Amino acid sequence: MLKTEFQKLGKSFAKVADEIGCSKPTLINIVNHGTFPKRNETALRDQVLNYFKQHGVDVADKLTPKVKKDNDMLLRKSALSQATRQHFGLTRDPFHDEIRQAQDVYLTPDVRYVREALFQTATQGGFVAVVGESGAGKSTLREDLHDRIHRENRPIVVIEPYVLAMEDNDQKGKTLKAVHIAEAILAAVVPDVSPKRSPESRFRQVHQALIESAKAGNKHILLIEEAHSLPIPTLKHLKRFFELKQGFERLIGIALIGQTELAQKLSENNPSVREVVQRCEVVTLLPLTDGKLQGYLKHKFERVGVKLEDVLDESAIDAIAERLTFTHRNGKNQLQQNSLLYPLAVNNLVSAAMNEAAGLGFERVDADIVKGI
Questions:
Q1: HSE (CB half, 13 Å, CA atoms) of 27?
Q2: Which residues of the chain have pLDDT under 50?
Q3: DSSP string covering 302-339
Q4: Terminus-to-terminus CA distance in the chain, angstroms?
Q5: Where in the chain is the domain with CATH 3.40.50.300?
Q6: How far apart are CA 93 and CA 295, in angstroms?
Q7: What is d(CA 334, CA 336) in angstroms, rounded to the nearest whole number?
Q8: Domain 109-284 CATH class label
């Protein structure tokens, strides 16, 4: 990048950084990697260009502005390199394939509530929709539910229809219909029994199978991931599965897990699903704001035997929160903050910052390193 041109200046990084008005790590990133911090990128680029020009070194061709990427690119996967793990004394990556037991899950108040809501739906029957952004931890809570049922030896049958190609219309993929849900229930509850051919006979078969399973002491939960891709007719039909009873006892609980589009489909303003809305509790996984970020990172590093303060200083924590918080104008032209402080985004940003710090030989990650990613 600018290594050769920088050497022509005959000055140290610290001296040049001070004269330009930026931090030393930021200047090292610019010279060695050609990367600028996202914030104030244009202004800093002009400052560096003018500084080199004033000292008789033309670097205009090497400081061509890069095409700006969407904020979603912050979610790009980043794993710790072997050199980084050795640099920080880590025996394994705290952010990759790190959930191996229930104790590895960081329980914020809202995560704890969602976890219990799912468990109560499985044990007592109920209708709940878990909504969250991509990377918010929804799949982790589904896996935690499976683990808890197995660990506590609960007689609960988990019914999970396959959603590999599911879309909310047949033009983009395959829709999940009520008949497919009936097949999934039969496959989980009475796997040796063939489904009846006619829809009426099949649904009667489903009801009877659930009754017999309940008599044997089993509970049932229908768990559908990627539920934001469920078509409206199927959402309406779920109400009828939910109402299957033996006397007063519900035979099946329903848990939907999906992205924020699911909350829009289950909006009170959507009259086409009003029967579902009146029965379904929508719970949302919130970002790691209000002091939860530091607790989350502390938990992650403690699970691999390392102290948070040995890897990130306090300024880095604030910089991570700032970097993953965006301000934009809503439909009413009002300024609104949007937070991407979800586990996956935090994991990727911290991993990239640690790789950068290790590559530069820094003892800890600081705010300048984070801002330079």
A1: 20
A2: 67-74
A3: HTTT--GGGTB-HHHHHHHHHHTEEEEE-TTS-EEEEE
A4: 16
A5: 109-284
A6: 18
A7: 6
A8: alpha beta
